[in-house]
Design a protein that fits this description.
The chain is mainly alpha-helical. The relative contact order is 0.09. The N terminus is likely disordered.
């Protein structure tokens, strides 16, 4: 019996292959995003992305079928990072009221940094957006529900509705000229969340 191929692939090898694939994946996403900024969406091709990422075109096609799939994957990675960033802000802030303000400010600043473009319009159509919006709404809703318990947030409107109010209001930060203006928008939004004086 030939046992030449009966060995198990060492874990170090499989880890190395996995790391390599992740590195190629990340390099591809970074290259595509850089090219869109530099050349515009219409000028980005698979050949240009492969060259920018330092990989062959055939290799690129093993990972992604087209430019749109690459850009959607890049956007999904960005959304995941932003959700993680908001969770970190919450964990790093002491006190529920402070957490709510810090998270809403972080969200507004993220919106401010990402102005609406043709790329944004394309990328906000994917299934990952609906999933991310659901996670984000639940995250904000949880913060608001805690604020209701402590008396910092009004209790006459369901937390889920208040979360939608916050997210829709703060999306406007993408069209504001400065970070200071985005912070003022946060203050106005927070004012709408406070319990009304009896």
């Amino acid at each position: 019996m030939n046992t030449m191929y009966s060995y198990v692939v060492p874990k170090l090898w499989t880890d190395t292959i996995s790391e390599h694939r992740q590195a190629v994946h990340d390099a591809t996403l970074d290259a595509a995003a850089a090219l869109v900024v530099e050349l515009g969406l219409a000028s980005v091709t698979m050949s240009r992305i492969a060259a920018e990422a330092g990989i062959g075109r055939a290799t690129l096609y093993k990972y992604f079928p087209d430019v749109e799939a690459i850009l959607l994957a890049w956007h999904e990675r960005q959304v995941t990072r932003h959700l993680g960033q908001l969770a970190e802000v919450r964990e790093a802030t002491i006190g529920q009221d402070g957490q709510l303000e810090a998270v809403l400010e972080a969200y507004a600043l993220i919106q401010h940094q990402h102005h609406e473009t043709d790329l944004a319009a394309l990328l906000h159509q994917g299934k990952h957006i609906a999933r991310a919006q659901h996670q984000l709404r639940a995250f904000i809703s949880d913060l608001l529900a805690q604020g209701v318990k402590t008396g910092d947030v009004r209790g006459d409107v369901p937390s889920a509705e208040l979360a939608s109010y916050c997210l829709h209001a703060l999306t406007a930060a993408s069209s504001l000229p400065t970070e200071a203006a985005a912070r003022r928008l946060v203050a106005i939004t927070l004012a709408g969340l406070r319990p009304s004086a009896a």
